Amino acid sequence: MVSWAVVTGGSHGIGRALALECIKRGIGVAIVALPNKDLDHIIDELSQYPRAHFRTLGCNLVEPGAVETVLDWLAQERITPTYLINNAGFGRGGLFEHTSWREYHVMMQLNNQVMVDLTYALLPQLKRTRGGILNMSSMEATLPLPYKTVYTGTKAFVYNYSLALREEFRYYDIGVSVLCPGPVITNEDGLKRVAAMGNLAKILVTMPEDIAPEAIGGMLAGKDVIRPGLLVKVLVTLGFLIPRRMKLRLLEKLFSKYREEKPELEAVEQ
Ligand SMILES: NC(=O)c1ccc[n+]([C@@H]2O[C@H](COP(=O)([O-])OP(=O)(O)OC[C@H]3O[C@@H](n4cnc5c(N)ncnc54)[C@H](OP(=O)(O)O)[C@@H]3O)[C@@H](O)[C@H]2O)c1
Asked: Domain span at residue 114?
């Protein structure tokens, strides 16, 4: 019988690579992502795999009732997930006041609230299948980034929440892993961040396909924290060793190019 993984945001970027990695390992994927061309693309792409088991749901996860919609859809498709991959999320770089508070609300909702709600809703099924949860955090969870303040905060939430939840869920035989990648080229914001980081970015950035095998392998092995790539591991370790004030000054300097940016119209309107 096929094991299924629910993958949020599985139509693009890292989520797409995680979904493809599951398929390669014989795990069926139930992808939930925004209903648009990215979803159409992943349907076309997965259709090329002769033995792939997949279903897709176009759904905006921050809309009221979204979690109920996901549950109803899984029931209709007769899917009892073994894995839950909470990947959907986004960030913004720039001065704190250059992003509108409305956008911050959506970010906190998608990066944190939706993750908690889905875990809550799928817990009875995960208890039955005794599988695993993979929550998407970031290298920034333990390296707080000036100019990505709210995003950094949401990822620190994911990190601590996942580690704590892991201990609780041990009693149910459900593994909880937290994925903490460095910069991955997926979208416009990622490209902006790479530009802001200058030379360091050139050696640090990866592509989604580079990190997916370690991420899914780590989830299946029940690892607690997954930091894909040697350089990310080294930088995070250094981050724990360097005194906090010095570390934060260095990080501020690294991203200070963001100070030169003009605010977007939506943020000014407040
Ligand atoms: N890229 C990085 O450098 C990096 C590093 C560390 C952690 N992360 C984290 O990794 C995760 C994926 O990032 P990414 O860079 O791969 O992003 P991405 O390329 O923009 O993909 C995000 C995925 O989530 C979907 N999505 C966005 N909003 C949604 C909503 N409201 N409801 C349902 N689905 C939604 C997107 O659908 P559409 O494509 O249709 O918009 C897409 O499938 C995020 O949590 C991010 O914070 C990223």
From this structure: 4-260
| Atom 40 (ligand 1) nearest CA | 34
Judge whether 267 lies within some domain: no
Task: Output the residue whose Cα is nearest ligand 1's atom 45.
Answer: 89
Number of domains in the chain: 1
Give me ligand 1 centre to Cα 257, in Å. Answer: 24
CA 147 to ligand 1 center in whole angstroms: 19
Is residue 205 a part of any domain in this protein?
A: yes
- Domain annotation covers residue 266: no
The burial of 109, by beta-carbon neighbours within 10 Å (0-12 exposed, 13-18 middle, 19 or more buried), is given as: middle
pTM for this entry = 0.95
Residues in contact with ligand 1 by the CB-under-6-Å rule are 9, 11-15, 33-34, 36, 38, 60-62, 87-91, 110, 136, 138, 181, 183-184, 186-187, 190
Determine the Cα–Cα distance for residues 240 and 91; give it in Å rounded to an integer: 23
**Helix pair 101-108, 149-169: axis angle to 10 deg:** 20
In ligand 1, the atom with minimum distance to the C-alpha of 17 is 16
Q: What is the CATH number of the domain that holds 34?
A: 3.40.50.720
Locate 244 and state its tokens. 């906090």
Q: How many residues does the chain have?
A: 270
Residue 155 lies in a domain: yes
pLDDT tens, the chain, 270 aa long: 899 999 999 999 999 999 999 999 999 999 999 999 999 999 999 999 999 999 999 999 999 999 999 999 999 999 999 999 999 999 988 999 999 999 999 999 999 999 999 999 999 999 999 999 999 999 999 999 999 999 999 999 999 999 999 999 999 999 999 999 999 999 877 777 677 777 777 788 899 999 999 999 999 999 999 999 999 999 999 999 999 999 999 999 988 888 887 776 566 444
Supply φ then ψ for residue 181, to 5 degrees. Answer: -75, 160
